[in-house]
Amino acid sequence: MANYTAADIKALREQTGAGMLDVKKALDEADGDTAKATEILRVKGLKGVTKREGRSASNGLVAAHVDGGVGTLVEVNCETDFVAKGEKFIALADKVLDQAVKVGAADAQALLDSDLDGKSVQAVLDEANATIGEKIEVRRVARVEGDNVVSYLHKTSPDLPAQVGVVFAYSGGDEQIGRDIAMHIAAFSPTVLTRDEVDEATVENERRIAEETAKEEGKPEAALPRIVEGRVNGYFAENVLLEQKYAKDQKKQVQAVLKEAGAEGTSFARFRVGA
Description:
Elements: H1 6-16, H2 20-29, H3 34-47, H4 49-52, E1 59-67, E2 70-78, H5 81-84, H6 87-103, H7 108-113, E3 115-116, E4 119-120, H8 121-132, E5 137-145, E6 148-154, E7 164-172, H9 175-188, H10 200-216, H11 224-239, E8 245-246, E9 249-253, H12 254-260, E10 263-272
Antiparallel strand pairs: 1-2, 2-5, 3-4, 6-7, 7-10, 8-9
Helix pairs in contact: 1-2, 2-3, 3-8, 6-8, 10-11
Keywords: Cytoplasm, Elongation factor, Protein biosynthesis
InterPro entries: EF-Ts_dimer_sf, Transl_elong_EFTs/EF1B, Transl_elong_EFTs/EF1B_dimer, Transl_elong_Ts_CS, UBA-like_sf
Region (Involved in Mg(2+) ion dislocation from EF-Tu): 80-83
C-alpha cells in the first residue's frame, strides 16, 4: 500500500485543484511521492485536454485592473466552484489579468494569442487545464479608457472570488461618484451607456412585441402608438445605464445623479461569471 496520509491528499488537491479520486490514484501510482504524483496528474491531464474542450466552464471569477485612465476586465472560467476558489486558479487568473494589462488586450483572442514567458496564453491555460483537470478558459476581456476609470468587484458568495466585475470611465466629478455608479452597474446590469448604442434591429423587435402585446390585450387602435412608445421607453429605462433609476435614489435617473456631481459617464464594461 502506498505510503501517504489524508493530509497528503488534501495538500495535493489544494495544490493542483484535481479531484479526490484522481489525487488518490496518482499517489498510489507514485507510491506516495507527491512530486511524482503532481507530474502524473499533469501528464494525464494533458492527455485529457481535448476531451475537456466540449465541457461547460460556467464557474470562475472576474478580475479587474485600473491604471490611470485605463481599466481592464477579464473573466476566467473553470468547471466547478471548488477549483474557482482554489489558490492555483486564482493565481492563474491574476497572471492572465497582468498579461492583458501588459499587452493592452481588448478582446479574449488577442490575449490568448499573446506571448507569455515564451508561450501563448492559450498554451499556459492548456497546461493549467492539464494539472487542474478541468476546462479553463478566458471567456471575455474588456478595456475601457477615459479621463477617470474606477473598478468594482462583487462577491455573490463569501466562499468564492468575485463573480461580478465592472470598470467605469467618466469625466469630471470625483472618485466617489465613479465608485457609486460602478456599484450601481454591478447591481442593475445595464447593457449600454446610451440608447443610441442599442442596435436598431433590437429596437424594432421591441416595438413589434409591444404592438402585438397591446393588440392582444385589446387596447384601442388609436392608443397603440402611445402605448408602444411607452413600452419601448421602458425597455431603454431597464437596459440603458444613463436612463436607469439610480440604485441609491429611485426618484432620479443615473444621468441626473452624474450631472449633479459634475460628472459625465463615457463608457463601461460589466461581466458576471457565466452570464
